[in-house]
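Reading a protein record of the kind used here takes little practice once its layout is understood. An example of such a record is reproduced below.
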Amino acid sequence: MKKTFISLCLLYAIAPIEAFAHQKSGFFIEGGFETGLLQGTENKEIPIKKVHNTYEDYFPTSTIARNSSNLFTDSQEISKLKFSTSRPIKVTLDNHKKQVVVENYLPYNLNNVRLSFKDALGNLVSLGILETIPKHAKILLDQSYFQNISLINPNASYLDFQATSTQKSDTSTQNLLEKLQNTTTNLEVSYVNQPTDFQSEFCKDKNCSFTPFTETTAKEFTNLLLNLASVIDSKSWHDNIINAPFDFSDKAMPDRNGKVPTGSKTISPQDIIEKLRKDMGLDISVLTSNSGFSHWAGAKAIAQAGSPPNANAKMAVNEKGINPNTFVDRNNKSNNRNKKPEPHSPNAYSLSLGISPLLKAYATAKGYANGGNMADQHVPSPYQPKNNTTLRSDGIPYDVCSSHKDNFPKFTNSVYPTCSNVPAGFVGITYEVWKQLINQDKLPINFLDLNNQKNYLNPLEFPNTLFGAVKESLLISSATTSGVSSVLQKFKAPILGANAKIGYQHYFNNLIGLSFYGVAKYNYSKINAKEVQQIGYGGGLDVLLDFVTTYAKSKNSSKKRFASSFGVFFGARGIYSNYSPSKTFKKPLKNTLNVHAVGGFSYRYKHSKYSVGVSVPLLRNRISLSYNDSHLVFLEDPNHFNVFFNYGWVF
């Protein structure tokens, strides 16, 4: 009963509408084609490759030889030199003569060496590459030859310059410069022929005298200091000092067990490392062979620390003390000063040749006194005289087994073979490490290959060095970089598609009506091989104005039936659109919402409906789509409208 009542109510509600509905009213469906114009810009990214070549000033051997001279000549010229253990290839500016000065204190010819400097920001900038730096040579090159010379601070010191190997350097040059990079202790050395202050302080003997530097003694002393600095800066020397199983002191002599008397002041290993590695100015001189130490038949050396502390320290060694034959044999191995003592010989260790005098002098120059095992050794001899005096001598090892038998230090490159044979003091450790580094070929100067170097300063040996260009441009690197170049171009392209509508149209009379509908559309365009896809959907309302409406008589009834109509329509629709650069409408999508004004002509014959019109976006939307190699930008605005042609059916 309830269902029947509801049905009757609906029937009575609809009946009046049906009774008074105009014949042109009804549901409709239509669809068709549409076209328009896309207009905008394409920012196309074109792949490009650029080759970047880097050139440096390159000075060939001919230029170097023409502008070089011997570094060590006579004693007067040698006394004007200042040498640095951290910069054995010393580069300075002579701004008065407008020259770049390169001094090679090494006994080796170097090949394809790059000279660099620090600019105002601390960056390392290449000055140029020298094909050859002759051994012990002084090179004078005009500053105008160097393109980067203006970047150098006019007050730059030699510490602002560096000499490094290049890919074109030979193996010996690369190995040598790599070894020198590990030397950071900077001894600023001056060659002094006659140090008068030594006369009063140390040379009280009438026979104490100095001899001026010769080319040979200057070279030998320089080589020794280079190796000494390398030893002091080595990891092996550091580790052996840190792990020394005995006391260090310059106030008290340790006993054979390496211990100083109770209450005596000791020096920490870390303090020794820091002090001996500290930068220092050093005046060096050469003692005559018979100076002062008439009882000492071998190498001799004396020194004094700087006074005041910021003054240069002083060191003098006799010719035998700097002669490599004193401490290097034919196999390039240091002589073993710990010789097996002869039976019943109390003086077996009294002679200490080799580098020991130099090491004692270095410790003294650093400010250590002679009262302990820093600037001396003086270990009690196992062969004591019978007169109750203690005989001390150099070269005798400590026996620390009583205190370190169970905890004897063991580490890589240890120079402590056993607890009963421990090198004594700073001199003993440094001497043994020096021997070790020679055998490992880790020192910059190898005394056995010094005679194998060519003499580039002799024009008779190298006549071609008298000719040739001053410098060349050397291609040192070539790099290819990939990038893109953006090209902006305008485009105009048609857009084609289809649309479909479904809705209801209601006429109030023959002239006027309204249309309510939903719409969906798809459009496609191709711009310079780039695809643009659009899907839109929304709804709208149109006003229908039919100027002509015709009716036909029905055969079976006197009632007229609708035949045809012609008119116009106008209205608005809201469209939500998705733009995509791919057919699958995957991201990235560009979504827009717009209001379109719609207008056009409509013709209807019975149930068939034909429409032609335009759809004009009223809002201005900027559409941007990205592709692999380009970027499209176009507008959705009143200037870019669609024209559609539709066919429909009115039910």
The chain has three domains: 25-45+487-650, 61-183+459-470, 189-443.
